[in-house]
Structure formats: structure tokens, C-alpha cells
Design brief:
This protein is an alpha+beta fold. The chain contains 4 helices and 10 strands, in the order ααββαβββββββαβ. This is Cyclophilin-like domain-containing protein.
Length: about 190
């Protein structure tokens, strides 16, 4: 299992580096450093125990929004199909909303998420962090400046992310069952 994980990490890192080679103006030097860290070399650590991924779980019909914060409706479009999503009222989510519309290539990672690097770093001011990610949750991870869509509940400790929103079950089902390793999608504020 660990050997498979290390192979996947090396493959993901290679994909990150290839993306940087194709898009050198995106400030990928930090991303290349992180990709190198994500690709562990074969070693005796391959025999270390690794937590098994959690069973797939459908997201709740609505992830709670922190008290006093308002949600902003979004539309996520993949292969011409629109899915409902929403961002919460955190400062981090507001900064991401200010970057929209976005066209991103999300890459599958760690058998529980898809992620893409954002064009700018949002503020983390006052943003609560968590190591427990939920299926249907949209998160921001500062380490790779990543906009993350999770499709399986998981504990990612020692890493911490900021939950910035949630997406509907239809998108979760697509990501869980039939999505390729790289998904081209656009996300924008819902004009309705």
C-alpha cells in the first residue's frame, strides 16, 4: 500500500512539474519545491504503516456555515454540465470569490480530493483551520496555494486547511465515480 502511495505521490509531483513547465509565468518555483517534497524517494519508509482511506461518504445536503456568515452561490461547469456550489463568508472565501471567474485544471490527489493552484494567495485572516475534511467540502490549503474539492471524508492531520464552501452531491458523485485524473472546469459566481 505504501509503495503504491509513493508511486502516486511521485506521479502527482511529476504532473505538477510538467504543468509548471507549460505555464512558467504562474510562479511555479514554490510549487516545484513542494512537488519535490511530495515525491518521496524509495526507502525503508515504504514499509511504514499508512492509514487506509476512509470509505466514500455522500456529502450532507448542506455543510454548516459559521454563524454570522453569508454564503455566495457558485456554478461549477465540467464538460458542459453545471453543478451548484457555494462559498462561505470567510475572508479566505471572499478573496477566492474575487478571483472569479476561474478556469482551472483540477488534479486528483491522495484518493480523496481534486486540487488546482489559485492565481493569487487569499487572506487567511481570522480563518478557522481543520484537519478533518468532509466529502462535498471546498477547502483552501496554503501549502500549495490550492483550491481543493474533496469527495471523501478524511483526516489529513498534521495538515490543516480552511473550509471555504461546499458543492452538491451530483458533483461529488461525478468526482467519486467517473472523473478522470485531471478535470478541466470553470467556476464562477452564480448570476441568479
Amino acid at each position: 500500500m505504501t509503495r503504491l502511495f509513493n508511486q502516486a505521490a511521485r506521479a502527482a509531483a511529476t504532473g505538477l512539474l510538467l504543468g509548471c513547465a507549460l505555464l512558467p509565468s504562474t510562479g511555479c518555483s514554490q510549487l516545484q519545491d513542494k512537488a519535490a517534497e511530495a515525491a518521496p524517494e524509495a526507502s525503508e519508509s515504504e514499509n511504514a504503516p499508512v492509514a487506509e482511506p476512509a470509505e466514500p461518504v455522500s456529502p450532507p445536503s448542506s455543510n454548516p456555515v459559521p454563524e454570522g456568515e453569508e454564503e455566495t452561490a457558485m456554478v461549477v461547469t465540467i464538460e458542459g454540465v453545471e453543478y451548484a456550489a457555494r462559498l462561505n463568508g470567510t475572508r479566505t472565501a471572499e478573496d477566492i470569490l474575487g478571483m472569479m471567474p476561474l478556469a482551472l485544471s483540477l488534479q486528483r490527489f491522495a484518493e480523496h480530493e481534486y486540487y488546482a493552484e489559485l492565481p493569487a494567495r487569499p487572506s487567511l485572516e481570522g480563518a478557522p483551520v481543520t484537519s478533518h475534511i468532509e466529502a462535498g467540502g471546498i477547502y483552501y490549503w496554503e501549502g500549495w496555494n490550492a483550491f481543493v474539492f474533496n469527495y471523501i471524508d478524511s483526516d489529513i492531520a498534521p495538515y490543516e486547511v480552511v473550509q471555504v464552501g461546499a458543492f452538491d452531491e451530483g458533483l461529488n458523485d461525478y468526482l467519486l465515480s467517473s472523473a478522470p485524473d485531471v478535470v478541466e472546469f470553470s467556476v464562477s459566481e452564480d448570476p441568479a
